[in-house]
Amino acid sequence: MCVHHGVMDGRGLATLTKLWAFFTRQNENIPLPIDLPDPDEPFKRAIRLVTSANDTADLGSSDVETIFQHYQNDRILEDVIPPSTNARSKRSSKIFEFSVDKLEYARGLLGDTCHATMNSILSAVIWCNVTRIRLTRRPQQPPTPYSRFFQMVDGRRRLGPEIDEPGPYLGNVVLTSAADVELDVLAATGAFDHQQISLMNPIIRAIGSASTRVTKQYIGGFLEILQQVQNPSSLGIGCMSQYGIDFISSSWANLPLYECDFGSAFSQDCAAETNGKPAFVRYPYVDYADGNMIVLPRQRFPTGKGEIIEVYVMLAGDDLLALSEDTRFCSWLEEQCA
């Protein structure tokens, strides 16, 4: 199965996979796990989005340029930025296994001071360590004091259940939040210890605050832009700076792909505990991205102890090698560096 990420988001993929698994099992005595999509669903996506966001507040102007000002932080008005100054370096990618127990400890230590979530802590840990390694390996410091963290935000949760009425919405409702933090602040922390975790407080708060700005009103205003511009293809999709210091995060952690049961026909050569369910979920190998992470779907176990979160990190090859050998970064992993 192959889907274009610009057309279908993670939750759309999960819905499609759940239906695929159901029909693969070929069990006529079990009801469908969800309603079947409307055959005309692809042709109704625009009106469904607008309808689900129709109670948003009016931005107070029919002038598209004025409306654009609400979205400047997304860089949708910028021209194409030149390639990164680090564009010629070889890219690579690797999966790291983070300890859930350590992340839970950090969340308990931070308490309610920054409304920390497992994902925001994980994002901060990787962003801090990647930034520090990038800076130590650069012959010159970048001409900007900030690094920007782009996070993919699930717009479906903001729009509510209306988006899945009358049947599942299979399109893309992912938006982008952007947080700027000083390079010095990022490089000063990143290890799994009491003091370093405390220093991550403003970073985690910045990530969380940026995400909460993506509201139902925000989505409604963005849809208004799309309806008013003469050529929607002229809009950018957000972009990183040319200095090779920004970072992008996307989380598939809560996608229930491990729960999809494809039936006995796919369980003969599998471990007994997996039956017809996936033994692992992976992302295709990428050798062209520098500064991306994807939190892979979580495989949850009854005991909870020793649970890991897998994160797929894409970086310049030399930076990725340095990261995988870095003691600060590895202190968060289930199995630390040798």
From TrEMBL:
It holds the Pfam family Transferase. One of its GO terms (molecular function) is acyltransferase activity, transferring groups other than amino-acyl groups. Keywords: Transferase. It comes from the Eukaryota. The keyword Acetylation does not apply. The keyword rRNA-binding does not apply. InterPro entries: CAT-like_dom_sf (IPR023213), Plant_Fungal_Acyltransferase (IPR050317). This is Trichothecene 8-O-acetyltransferase. It comes from Fusarium irregulare.
